[in-house]
C-alpha cells in the first residue's frame, strides 16, 4: 500500500512530504499550503536529481491503472487545511471519469482522515471508499474514530507501547485494520509483521520489500526475535513515552488550530462500504 499526501483541494498536485524545493523566484519562503492557495505548485521540484515536478492526481490514477500496479492500493493522506466537501467532490469527479472505476479504482483507494469533520462528508460523497483515521494519539483514535472508520493509520511509537498493544488487540477484535507510519528501521518493520498489521508506510520500500520476501520464504526465521528486538526500543528517543506524547500533543494543537475542535457532533454513520455500481 502506498500513502499519498493531499495539501490542496485543487487536485493540481499530490505533494511529496519530503525532498521538495521551489524554483520560482520570490517563492522560496512560501509554505506548501500557500503554494496551493496561489496555484504555484508548478514551480515545486524534487531536490534530488533528476528534478521532478509534483505529479497530478490524474497522473497518480493513470499509474495505478497500469497492469504492473494492479495490486497497489493508495492511502490518501487528506490534510485538514482542505474543505472536505470540496475535496471529496473533486476526488469523486476524477474517479468516476474513468471507465470501469467501480472495479479498477474504488476497491484500491482509502481515505486517510485526520479530523472528525471529514467523516460525514466522506460517508455522503464517497461512501464506496473505506475510511482510515490517521492519528498520533490512541485515546483520540478511540474516542473520535473507532465507530466511524474502518481502520487506522498510526504513528509507530504509539503502537509499540503497552497502550498500543491493547489498541492492536481491540482493533483485531473489532475487525479494524491498522497501517503503521513511518517505519524505516528494519527491526521495526519486522515488529510490524509480527503484529500482523495491514501495511507499513516507509521511506525505504526497497528494505521493506526485502523483508517481506524473507518472510514469504521462511516466516519463522525472518521474524525470530533477537537481542536487538528487546533492547533497541529502549535506546531510541522516539519510543520514549514523554517524546511521543509531546509529538501527539503538538499534532493535536496543529489539527485543532487548522480545522477546529475535535469535539463536534458527528451523527452515527453507516459502517458498510457502499457498492460503487449502485
TrEMBL record:
Domain of life of the native organism: Eukaryota
GO BP, sorted A to Z: lipid metabolic process
SUPFAM superfamilies: PLC-like phosphodiesterases
Residues annotated as signal peptide: none
Domain called GP-PDE: residue spans: 1-212
Pfam families documented for this protein: GDPD (PF03009)
Gene Ontology molecular function: phosphoric diester hydrolase activity
Matching PANTHER family: GLYCEROPHOSPHORYL DIESTER PHOSPHODIESTERASE, GP-PDE DOMAIN-CONTAINING PROTEIN
Protein's recorded name: GP-PDE domain-containing protein
